[in-house]
Amino acid sequence: QVSRSPVNLTLVPEAIPAIEESTQVVDRVIAEDRTVYGINTGFGLLANTRIAPEDLETLQRSIVLSHAAGIGEFMSDETVRLMMV
């Protein structure tokens, strides 16, 4: 059914507190000006490079985009739906 038509997916309510807690941890790291790998540092060989607070949003977006890949022709909506769940 997922491949043939759009479906609505939701997180179980029990997941929400864990997400909120994780967000609070990251916010606290930034507020306390602590250095934490992957939150306000570069990655890999740049792990010791501190990222300026005004560049953190760009850092997070860039790490997602750095994992983007192309495979040629666009896939069908049905195939993409199956891959996403």
TrEMBL record:
Keyword 4Fe-4S attached: no
Keyword Cell membrane: no
Single GO term (MF): ammonia-lyase activity
Keywords: Lyase
Highest taxon listed in the record's lineage: Bacteria
Cross-referenced SUPFAM superfamilies: L-aspartase-like
Protein's name in the database: Aromatic amino acid lyase
Source species of the chain: Vibrio parahaemolyticus
